[in-house]
Design brief:
alpha+beta; eleven-stranded mixed β-sheet; 29% strand; globular
C-alpha cells in the first residue's frame, strides 16, 4: 500500500506517522510500541519495521484522523546530518555568476567533485510553520530543493549502487542570509572571508516536508518538476534533470569521506530564480510555496 512518512506534533512531542490519502495515522498509537514514536528509529530498522508499517497503513481508514487536522513537523526532526550541495544546477550557476560578474566554470570539466556545506538540525521546521527572519540579516533568500533521505548505512558506495541507499524524497527550502555570507572588513583573499554558518544556519532556516515519499514510489528522481512561488508569484521553475552532479554522484561523493547513516538528509541544490539573482529578498509576511512533482507542497510564512 502506498503511504508517506511524516512526523506530527502529538501534543506531547514529535511522533512518527503515516499519511495515507487524506488520513494520518500516528504509528505508536496504532502499534502500541513506544519506540515507534521515533522516525529515526523506524528508518534505522527499516527492513524489520516495514511490514508493521504496511499493516498500519492498511487500517488507515479506521485508525486515521483527517490529515487537515494534523500539525506536521519536519518529517525527520533529528537527522545525524543535513548535507547541502552547493552550486549544483547549471541555470543557477549561470545566474549567480552573472550577478557576481564572474565567468561560468564547469566543475566536471576540470575534475572537481560535488561541493557540500552543512545545516544543523535546529534549522529544521515543518510545513505551514512560521519562520522567523534572521535577527541580523536583511537579505533572506529562498532556495527550493529536492531532498534525499538516506535509508541505510552507506560508506564508499559506488555511483551505480548509490540509489539503493535512498529511503525516500521530500522537499526543502535552503533559506539563506545573503548579506551574512562574507565578512566585509576582510579582503577576498583572506581565508576567513566567508561565513557559511551565519549564511545558512539559524532557527527555522531549513523547512522540510511535508512528508517523505518512499523511493519505491518515485519513478525517476532525476526528472521531477520543481516550482517555487513567493506570494503566488512563480520565482523558480525547473526540473531535477538540470543538476550538474546527479543524486548518485552526490551520495557517492559524500560517502567517500565518511559514513552516511539512516535518516541523514541531502539537499541536492537549487535551480535558477533565487532572490539574489533578481535583487529581491523576503520580508515578514511573505508566503513561500514549493511544489515538487509527486512529493506534495511545502508552505511557510516568514515572520
Amino acid at each position: 500500500m502506498k503511504f508517506q512518512l511524516a512526523t506530527i506534533d502529538s501534543g506531547s512531542g514529535p511522533s512518527a506517522a503515516l499519511i495515507v490519502g487524506d488520513k494520518v495515522v500516528e504509528v505508536a498509537a496504532a502499534t502500541g510500541r513506544e519506540a515507534d514514536r521515533s522516525m529515526l528509529a523506524l528508518i534505522s530498522g527499516w527492513d524489520a519495521n516495514l511490514p508493521r508499517l504496511e499493516a498500519v497503513a492498511a487500517k488507515a481508514d479506521s485508525l486515521g484522523a483527517p490529515l487537515a487536522s494534523a500539525k506536521l513537523l519536519a518529517p525527520i526532526t533529528d537527522p545525524g546530518g543535513i548535507f547541502c550541495v552547493g552550486a549544483n544546477y547549471s541555470d543557477h550557476v549561470a545566474e549567480m555568476a552573472a550577478q557576481a560578474g564572474r565567468p561560468i566554470a564547469d566543475p566536471k570539466a576540470i575534475g572537481v567533485r560535488s561541493w557540500q556545506f552543512l545545516k544543523t538540525r535546529h534549522c529544521l521546521t515543518g510545513t505551514n510553520s512560521i519562520v522567523a527572519m534572521h535577527p541580523r540579516a536583511k537579505k533572506i533568500d529562498w532556495e527550493a530543493e529536492l531532498a534525499v533521505v538516506i535509508g541505510k548505512k552507506a560508506f564508499q558506495v559506488s555511483e551505480e549502487d548509490a540509489l539503493d541507499y535512498v529511503l525516500g524524497y521530500t522537499i526543502a527550502n535552503d533559506l539563506s542570509a545573503r548579506d551574512l555570507n562574507k565578512r566585509d572588513q576582510l579582503p577576498d583573499v583572506n581565508p576567513f572571508k566567508f561565513d557559511w554558518v551565519a549564511h545558512k544556519n539559524w532557527d527555522g532556516s531549513c523547512p522540510l516536508g511535508p512528508a517523505i515519499t518512499l523511493a519505491r514510489d518515485v519513478a525517476d528522481p532525476q526528472d521531477l518538476d520543481i516550482t517555487l512561488e513567493v506570494n503566488g508569484v512563480v520565482k523558480q521553475q525547473s526540473n531535477s534533470s538540470r543538476m550538474i552532479f546527479n543524486i548518485r554522484e552526490q551520495i557517492a561523493d559524500l560517502s567517500r569521506n565518511f559514513t552516511l547513516w539512516p535518516g541523514d538528509v541531502i539537499l541536492t541544490g537549487t535551480p535558477a530564480g533565487v532572490g539574489a539573482g533578481r535583487g529581491e529578498f523576503l520580508n515578514k509576511g511573505d508566503v513561500i510555496r514549493i511544489r515538487i512533482e509527486g512529493l506534495g507542497e511545502l508552505v511557510n510564512t516568514m515572520g
